[in-house]
## 1
Amino acid sequence: MSGEAFSDAVIETLRGILPPSQEPIPLHQPSFKGSEWTYVKECLDTGWVSSAGKFVDRFEKELSEYTTSPFAVACCNGTAALHICLLLSEVERGDEVLLPALTFVATANAVSYCGAIPHFVDSEERTLGVDPEKLLKHLSEIAEVRGNECFNRKTGRRIRALVAMHTFGCPVDLDPIAEICQRFKIHLIEDAAESLGSTYKGRHTGNIGRVSALSFNGNKIITTGGGGAVLTADKKLAEKAKHLTTTAKSPHPYLFNHDELGYNYRMPNINAALGCAQLEQIDGFLAAKRLLASKYEKIFSGLQGLKVFTPPTWAKSNFWLNTVILDHTHTQYRDEILKTANAAEILARPVWTLMHKLPMFKSAPRMDLSTAESLELRILNFPSSPSLVGEVSGNA
Amino acid sequence: MSGEAFSDAVIETLRGILPPSQEPIPLHQPSFKGSEWTYVKECLDTGWVSSAGKFVDRFEKELSEYTTSPFAVACCNGTAALHICLLLSEVERGDEVLLPALTFVATANAVSYCGAIPHFVDSEERTLGVDPEKLLKHLSEIAEVRGNECFNRKTGRRIRALVAMHTFGCPVDLDPIAEICQRFKIHLIEDAAESLGSTYKGRHTGNIGRVSALSFNGNKIITTGGGGAVLTADKKLAEKAKHLTTTAKSPHPYLFNHDELGYNYRMPNINAALGCAQLEQIDGFLAAKRLLASKYEKIFSGLQGLKVFTPPTWAKSNFWLNTVILDHTHTQYRDEILKTANAAEILARPVWTLMHKLPMFKSAPRMDLSTAESLELRILNFPSSPSLVGEVSGNA
């Protein structure tokens, strides 16, 4: 089949799922059919839209309950949450932080904000996330544990943390990764920006890392406009997260004392109000997204040359973004499919350019990244809004 | 008069302005009587709450028109806007940045985010902001211009920028400060977080610095919940600001390339919607705040031991926070007044603890700070919400 013919076949297959539309079909669109209006109006009516107000506390409490993470601290966005996770992991200037080359740029940027150096690791085809086997092999070769710390023998720098990102909602294989981190004295951070609602062996993502980051950007499974959160089971770390996100101000009714370098990373109350309403509907969103994912799997099963990505049996994905992986024989058709889909106003996209190919991270240390480099050429994301399977009820 | 008697007299005087209230009277409360509701609902109805959507563009355009600054770039908060201003001023790791010791901690924190070192300068009683005369004397003593750059002879470090903060809305004396910056090859940044609506010799603050930062936090004259903006007359700097605040992503319909270290500092659309509605009402807010300020001036004129702060004749303040300055003879009563007022649920507060007294900035270089140190003991802020002078109309 020619590139054009294959591309046309893919678009034709997509049309079997996607409703006919005069408008472009976005990759992921939020849905506001719950109490968004009521809660936001309450903010405006009471005048509490900003850094104080009950919805921030309530959103944190409800996030904690939903994820079963003992503490949740709301932030202004997922990047801020990642930055705080790294600070809580005692990442300091000149340290190295392990993270997948296959991730959104925020993961690597947050490492730079700490003055630390990203050290890129490979992903595996099973999860699209950190490959525990390759990680173990790599660390066995380059890392040395001295006392309670891990050092890169080649660069001499301390390796302080690993950020494991759950790609498109699919959990990485957390058990072996956590074991490797423990063995090498590396703090485990989960970048769960894309995986709210996903579970790993029955546990919500964000519960295995020492600290974890969530995102509620407009394209995520629930949105606060812009927002994020830090999850942790450690009360002291949660308190520290709250302190760092609120300019490190010492509590006092009117005195302004700040006891360390802090950040203005708090989530405004009006955004948290949106979050509370969205979280109430997450079961419905998840049900819709899982239904949509099963439709993708079914409809594409007849087409040779690609496979719909499905998570391992121990993982339950939120299917944030529906993902198709081209066969090695069909890699060369990726751009044609992207062009045709976008011309047809079906917003398809490739995965992010790998981190070590971006100019600011070109000289960062890395292991063999052959799987990520192969996946980069073969991944396609297709429209994944819950509304694509019809009306989304408030709760499933 | 004893401390208690003086303190009681101050509270009694305050009661002459403040309406009787069952609720605590906050320092500054926003007012949502315009189109907030309509615009926010439009965001929810259209699904555009996040990083894309028309209100961000509209808010930037309207901010630019209102301030007469050719370009405005919305950010997630004022701290982020300051950070971007410093990056646009080419502040690099190891540089020094001049800023007043008398400021909110965000000004100094943003300098630290760049890896630069705050260098504290004194304020003057006339404006509560940077003292141009002392600044000139200090730079004449310690600074050396080599080529197009300024160096601190004592530390050997480059001095890259001066951040002049308009305290409580009162513009600093920008003409001589701009002249000093030009002479010493230092970039001038206006921290106009508190001074939207204030003018210096007829020009809106934020127009004299090469770049300037605004804040729309919940306690500011207009609010977006959390928000800020960068103002500049330089198109290239405005484009760079937009690029840096949006993860430095190269424009493309679906490819993810980022060409430098970027930030997630964009303002969500739902917050910009609030901003558009608030900005429509700013003339009314300003009129109310100026009326309230004149009431403060009048009612306190009979009380010996303090003076209501009034800006110089060339300045028109937005009177963000009404400010009283204790006479040198009455410094010792500050804490008593704060305690009494807050016990009476009238939220009064002192000025921020001076920056060089905070643990993270203790070893930073500084000039003689005697005026700031005196002001720190004598400044009191009193309730300043526009609603304290009755209903605020949509437009004055």
## 2
Amino acid sequence: MTTGQITIKPRYCECDPMGVAHHSVYPVWFEMGRTELLRSTGISYREFEEEGVFLAVVRLDVRYKQSARYDDDLVLETEITSIGRVKIEHAYRLLREEVLIATGHTTLACLNSEGAACLLPDRLRSSVDSC
Amino acid sequence: MTTGQITIKPRYCECDPMGVAHHSVYPVWFEMGRTELLRSTGISYREFEEEGVFLAVVRLDVRYKQSARYDDDLVLETEITSIGRVKIEHAYRLLREEVLIATGHTTLACLNSEGAACLLPDRLRSSVDSC
Amino acid sequence: MTTGQITIKPRYCECDPMGVAHHSVYPVWFEMGRTELLRSTGISYREFEEEGVFLAVVRLDVRYKQSARYDDDLVLETEITSIGRVKIEHAYRLLREEVLIATGHTTLACLNSEGAACLLPDRLRSSVDSC
Amino acid sequence: MTTGQITIKPRYCECDPMGVAHHSVYPVWFEMGRTELLRSTGISYREFEEEGVFLAVVRLDVRYKQSARYDDDLVLETEITSIGRVKIEHAYRLLREEVLIATGHTTLACLNSEGAACLLPDRLRSSVDSC
């Protein structure tokens, strides 16, 4: 299935008094991973929204294994693990060199501009299938 | 001029590796102060937006005098210092008991849903004048 | 088991271009729920940290069922569902009146100031047991 | 004086219901600009902190001129405009191609690990003087 990598450097304000990246910022990084993975298949999420198609997170699961610190050089691997008619699932692995920092999974549902479930756009499905 | 007070407790994720509230969260607190000040005059900012009226920050100035820490009991005083035809100015004082933590000023401009400057709604101007 | 409630009003900056609270802010609200639940048993998390005891999130799971919007009046119910020697588990239900917005679960591990696993403080365990 | 450039892409969660980057995220971008400017002179802010030297923002001023949107390609120019014995000042210009989005200024003070004012490290002063 389609996979991609981005680099992440935890920002100062993303780190907490323990000196480590706060756990609530990982879902933000996952979203960045999804955006860039989509872009790599030739699709802009911003264009989706301009056409009235939205992808809403309906499930999030994160396992935190090691801390990440301010200014660390991290790599986030994002993979599409399943794509159905209205939902798409991703898996994530966050690494600092060989050290596994965290893993995660999300499920997104496709919504129209009224917030009702709708079919994932064909060009998203076909871009994934062709990978 | 119209003034109001809210209480603030810095959240854990709002504090940085120095153990103090990050400077970028103060503008967020100022916005909360404005929302509640507006509400105290009987106006909901959410209703404004539903009517297509937006208030955009065009200037922000903050002086940080002392640190605020996680779980501190802070008081934010918000005051409308000037109201014109399209702009409104606020001043802020953030305190922990008698200690002055920070002061700030903002200027907001009224925009319509296309992002063009427009007149501040009459009921905002009159609610301020009557205080 | 010990339970508590707090009220939440999504802040403007917590809402995204879809007009709804961004999914990454839910873990922040859950943390606020834990802090207040702890406080209700007479324990300050800030004091824990001052004594060199830290609670780190090692697992997070959220199911998003309905959107929350700016300035909504939400209630977050937080419950301790399990407490062991080094880990503590919480469950969350976020509601807008009778509507269930989201549910969540977290597992926290107790760490010392070097980041090594350590026993949960006795007074935390006993405060929970006595509820 | 020393200057540097970084690229910025507003994240989805940094944008608000108006569809534009929230004003509170600009100070976060300015901090990123300072970190990379420092790095370009061969200094890591993280190392500073590990040696017990902290730079705290004591003044922030931002003028917002145009909106920035999700996924825009922005450039942030950061310049050191003044360096004294304990304080350092920066100016910022945020651009989308030729369009000026915002300008800003900050003043930072050097603090030791007890939070008391202290002299800026010699190697910071000399790295700036030599540019």
